[in-house]
Design goal:
Blueprint: H1 3-13, E1 25-29, E2 32-35, E3 40-43, H2 46-49, H3 58-70, H4 81-92, E4 99-102, H5 105-119, E5 124-128, H6 137-141, H7 146-149, E6 159-162, E7 174-179, E8 182-183, E9 189-190, H8 193-206, E10 209-213, H9 228-231, E11 237-240, E12 251-255, H10 276-289, H11 292-311, E13 317-319, E14 322-326, H12 330-341, E15 343-344, E16 346-347, E17 352-355, H13 363-377
Parallel strand pairs: 3-15, 5-6, 5-7, 7-10, 10-11
Antiparallel strand pairs: 1-2, 2-3, 4-12, 8-9, 11-12, 13-14, 14-17, 16-17
Helix pairs in contact: 3-10, 4-10, 11-13, 12-13
Bound molecules: pyridoxal-5'-phosphate.
The site of pyridoxal-5'-phosphate has 14 residues, from α5.
C-alpha cells in the first residue's frame, strides 16, 4: 500500500491523536530501519526509548517466537513461568520487593498511584513541573502540563505541583512524591541530585512513598540499569516500561520489601499483564542489558555522542544514550534529518531535539549520526 493510501486510511479511520511523519517503515535491524521504498535510515529514537537492544535482536526474536509458538495467553488466574521469572528478576535487580506486571508506562504509574493511596488512604501526590507520566486519567493528573490536562478536567484530585528544583510541598497528607530522575518528554532534564536527596528525606520524615518513574530513563538508557543508581537515592517504588519489552508492550511497578504487601487480592489487576510472550521478551532484553560490560559500553558511547555533539557547538544535555540539544526550530530540523538525511530523531518541544538510539548502537553509527546532524545544520 502506498504512503498516500495509508494517509487516506488514517484520515478516514484513525483518531487524530498523532502527528505522524510521512514515512512508512517496513523493516528494522539493529539501529537501521527501512522504509517501503527501500531507503535505509539510522534510528536514533528507537520508538522513543523502546527498541533498547535494537530492532529484531536475534535473542529477542528467538525468545518471542519460541514462546508464541508454545503458549500466548492464559491470564492471571494461572501460572506461567516467564512472568514469574520477570517479576523476580526486576525486583532482584532493583528494590528487592515485588513487582506488578502491566502493559505500559501509564499503567505502571496507575499501579504506583493506587499502591500509594492504598498505603495512605486519601493521600495526596507531589509531582514536578515538566514531569510526564502518561495519558490515562491518573497518570495525566500526575503530568502537570496545562495543554495536556485542561481538555480533560476534572482530573483526579489531590496532586500538588513542585518546581523542578524544589522546594517540595510535603506534609503528613502526602502519600507519594513521583519523580522522573531524568525528565524525558519535557526535553531531557536531569533532576538535581540535591532534589532527589531532599525528596528522600522529606518522604522519610512524613511517611510518604518516593516513586521514581524509570519508564524512559530506565533499562540501561543512562548507562546504569536504573537512572536513580547514579544518584545513590533509592526510591520505595519504581515504574518501568518502554525498553523493558524491547518493542513489545510490557511494564512494571516494583516496590521495596516494605511496601510489597500493600496491594492485596482484588485491589488491582490486568488481563494481559505479565503474559508469557511479553514477559519472555522482557527476560531476553534483561539478559542483554543487565550486564555491567554492556552498561559500561552505554556510558562510553553516551560520552562519545555527547562529545561529538559538543564539537558541533550543540551543548547536549542528559546522560548515557538519553541526550537532547537545543535547536531553534526542532520540528523543522527533525523533519529535515528524517527526509533529507535519513536519521530518525524527535522534537520534544519546539526547540529541543531528542536522541534515544538503541543501546546496541555502534561507534561508527554514532559518528555517522553526528555527521548527518552536522550536514542538516549546514
Ligand atoms: N512515564 C514516562 C517517564 C514516560 O516517558 C512515558 C511515556 O513517554 C510514560 C510514563 C507513559 O508511558 P506509556 O506511553 O507506555 O503509557
Amino acid at each position: 500500500m502506498a504512503l498516500a493510501e495509508l494517509q487516506a486510511l488514517e484520515r478516514d479511520a484513525v483518531m487524530a491523536t498523532y502527528a505522524r511523519q510521512p514515512v512508512e517503515f517496513v523493516r528494522g535491524e539493529g539501529t537501521m530501519l527501512w522504509d517501503a521504498e527501500g531507503n535505509e535510515y539510522l534510528d536514533f529514537l528507537a520508538g522513543i526509548s523502546v527498541a533498547q537492544i535494537g530492532h529484531c535482536h536475534p535473542r529477542l526474536v528467538a525468545a518471542v517466537t519460541e514462546q508464541a509458538g508454545r503458549l500466548m495467553h492464559v491470564g492471571n488466574l494461572f501460572y506461567t513461568e516467564p512472568g514469574m521469572r520477570l517479576a523476580k528478576r526486576l525486583a532482584d535487580a532493583s528494590l528487592g520487593g515485588k513487582a506488578f506486571l502491566c502493559n505500559s508506562g501509564a499503567e505502571a504509574i496507575e499501579c504506583a498511584l493506587k499502591l500509594a493511596r492504598r498505603y495512605r488512604r486519601g493521600g495526596e501526590f507531589v509531582v514536578l513541573e515538566g514531569g510526564f507520566h502518561g495519558r490515562t486519567m491518573g497518570a495525566l493528573s500526575a503530568t502537570p502540563q496545562e495543554s495536556k490536562q485542561a481538555p480533560f478536567a476534572p482530573l483526579v484530585p489531590g496532586f500538588r505541583v513542585a518546581p523542578r528544583r524544589g522546594p517540595l510541598p510535603l506534609d503528613e497528607r502526602v502519600a507519594a512524591v513521583i519523580i522522573e530522575p531524568i525528565q524525558g518528554e519535557s526535553g531531557i532534564h536531569p533532576i538535581d541530585r540535591g532534589l532527589l536527596v531532599a525528596a528522600r528525606e522529606a518522604c522519610d520524615e512524613h511517611g510518604a512513598l518516593l516513586v521514581f518513574d524509570e519508564v524512559q530513563c530506565g533499562m540501561g538508557r543512562t548507562g546504569r540499569l536504573w537512572a536513580w543508581e547514579e544518584s545513590g537515592v533509592r526510591p520505595d517504588v519504581m515504574t518501568v516500561a518502554k525498553g523493558l519489552g524491547g518493542g513489545l508492550p510490557v511494564g512494571a511497578c516494583v516496590t521495596s520489601p516494605e511496601y510489597a504487601p500493600v496491594l492485596q487480592p482484588g485491589d488491582h489487576g490486568s488481563t494481559f499483564g505479565g503474559g508469557p510472550v511479553v514477559a519472555a521478551a522482557a527476560n531476553a532484553v534483561l539478559d542483554v542489558v543487565d550486564e555491567e560490560a554492556f552498561l559500561a559500553a552505554v556510558r562510553a558511547k553516551g560520552e562519545r555522542l555527547a562529545g561529538e555533539l559538543t564539537k558541533l557547538g550543540l551543548e547536549p544535555r542528559g546522560r548515557g544514550l538519553m541526550l537532547a540539544f537545543h535547536a531553534p526550530d526542532a520540528p523543522g530540523l527533525v523533519r529535515k534529518l528524517l527526509l533529507d538525511h535519513r536519521l530518525v530523531a524527535n522534537a520534544s518541544g519546539p526547540d529541543t531535539v531528542r536522541l534515544l538510539p538503541p543501546l546496541t548502537v555502534s561507534e561508527r553509527e554514532l559518528d555517522e549520526a553526528v555527521a548527518r546532524i552536522a550536514a542538516a545544520l549546514g
